[in-house]
Amino acid sequence: MALLRTNRSYRLLFSASAVSNLGDGISALAFPWLATLITRDPVLVALVAFAQRLPWLLFSIPVGVVTDRYDRRTLIWRADVVRMVLNVGVVGLVLGLPDLPLRGDPIWAIAVLSCFAFALGTAEVVRDNAAQTVLPALVAKADLERANGQMWTIEEIMGSFIGPPLAGVLIAMAVPVPFGVDALAFGLSAVCVWMIALPTRAAPPRRKITQELREGWAWMRNHPTILRIAIMLGLINGLGLMVMTILVLFSQDVLGLDAVGHGFLLTCGAVGAVIGGMIGPAWVARFGGQVSIPAALVLITASYVGMALTSQAWVTAVSLALGTMGGVLWNVVTVSYRQRRIPDALLGRVNAIYRFFGWGAMPIGALLGGWIAAAAEPDLGREAALRLPIILCAIGHGLLLIYARARLRL
């Protein structure tokens, strides 16, 4: 905790991440749950998740250029202000709906909710890319693993441990309430980031955007390990969104959980992330990235295997914990690895290209999850159809584990 005591700017960034991820955690349950109150169609529910993740595919690369050109602190706090305003808009949408669950045509309500999700996702692209490029300017390189471990831990505690069950309680009070709390969280985050003092950066020369993007791509192409990790992350996230998109329906129709129960299910999964954030830096220091990457993939694969084979909420919770532990271990290794190697002048662009590969597959995975479940239901039945994306996800992660052992060299 020495970093938090002695480094004011890092402490403010840490606090901003805590409150903004609380908002993200509330949204992680509130948005899909609101979608299920509007419709029970897996494809329409998936459409909301698709809209929220689509900006990572569309805007990651141009946002990288913006991140290198402009003040990163300003980009972060302004994005949080935009997210605050948009959540106030969602409150207005919910108040304008007739009684929920909705009995009429759900298309218009899903379309409007998807527009809000898309706008929130766009602001998230700007904020997250800028925030990850800021950290190396606030802490010494020797402290990056420790700082990233602390950041991932607080993000998981607030975003997965506290946010989802709190969202369940807030939804039980009234459906608009979690979105109002979201707005407050993003407003507090904006204030914290606005107070950060960043070291002065020399303004880069302005050139054509295509030239700047070519520089970022040329650097990544000449560092194939980072490119391979980015592509692997894209597959991990795409497969994961197949599951997370239908998990809200799986919780209701297979596990028999209400909003509060689903929130606590996600919280149990977050326990693994907290453990991963606490032990991840020490594990990596002892065993190195070459061992840690396959270990992370073993945990993630085991997670989806467990989910595919159970109808018990507690087994699903333990499985989610294994998966999030593996996910945080993966992040501690790979984020620190690229923060150390990417030059500061290229950090925004290369991170954006990395996230284009790593996060751009998520909207595709979200749509696939809903489509696979909907297409399989007439032949397999509701429960088996909801399990099918989970089974495919487990197989995909097993193949990634084999690839990592054979080809990935850190």
From TrEMBL:
Q: Which UniProt keywords apply?
A: Cell membrane, Membrane, Transmembrane, Transmembrane helix, Transport
Lipid bilayer topology: Multi-pass membrane protein
Superkingdom of the source species: Bacteria
Entry's transmembrane regions? 12-31, 43-63, 75-95, 107-126, 157-177, 183-204, 225-250, 262-284, 291-307, 313-333, 353-374, 386-404
Q: Which cell locations does it reside in? A: Cell membrane
Q: Which GO terms label this protein's molecular function in UniProt? A: transmembrane transporter activity
Q: Which InterPro entries match?
A: MFS_dom (IPR020846), MFS_trans_sf (IPR036259), TM_effector (IPR010290)
Please report the stretch or stretches of sequence annotated as the Major facilitator superfamily (MFS) profile domain.
Answer: 226-410
User: What do the Gene Ontology cellular component annotations say?
Assistant: plasma membrane
Q: PANTHER family, alphabetically? A: INTEGRAL MEMBRANE EFFLUX PROTEIN-RELATED, STAPHYLOFERRIN A TRANSPORTER
| Full protein name | Enterobactin exporter EntS
